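[Meeting: bench + compute handoff]

Bench side (C.D.) handed over the final construct sequence. Compute side (W.E.) agreed to return the predicted structure before the next meeting so the bench team could plan truncations. Sequence as handed over:
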Amino acid sequence: MGGIVNMSDTISSLKESIITYNRNLAREMATKAIGEGIEPNDILAGMTETIRKIGDDFGKGELFLPDLVGAASAMSEAISVVEAEIEKSGKEIEKIGTVVLGTVKGDIHDIGKTMVKTFLVAENFRVIDLGVDISSERFIEAIEKYNPEILALSALLTTTIAEQNRIIEVLKDKGIRDKVKVIIGGAATTQEFADEIGADGYEATAARAPRLCKTLLGKE
């Protein structure tokens, strides 16, 4: 019984580390949970429950962007520990789908994109994060290499949202537009713009990105 109580305490501390944006504690508790033999899936489930609650509170206006950034940052630290353990053990965890993610060419903003990645990984998506200032050619290469169901394009600047449109046009030119669902986000984007350029989806908040992706894949 003592072991079960301790394991539960470790997951509770891990959840607390996300709520208090404590990256060091998040890494420490994730490492401890693995050391105690808790299944990686159970560790991820505990974190997902917490980050969902934070996302919901943000959506209701009870939390603010710095809260979301801090929580996502702490969770990302813990996820990296859990993913390393999964890789080491050779266990295969079935993923909902693969998302190729990046900030478009000319834009070097990273925070929103990184938060989207954290929320998607927490909800059991495989995420290929290409980084920032990514050209249409690199997005195309990633689609051909990873065969994702979803391409997620971030743009924070009004000067770079046209690049989201250009990438969709390049996908059409290459004859692979039907191969992948394209979603867009970022401060400069809107639902109207998404409709105008023919994107499959738009989401204003990182916390709700997994819901959009699940809906597009018919898994919500």
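W.E. noted at the follow-up: The longest helix spans residues 65-89. C.D. will use this when planning the next construct.
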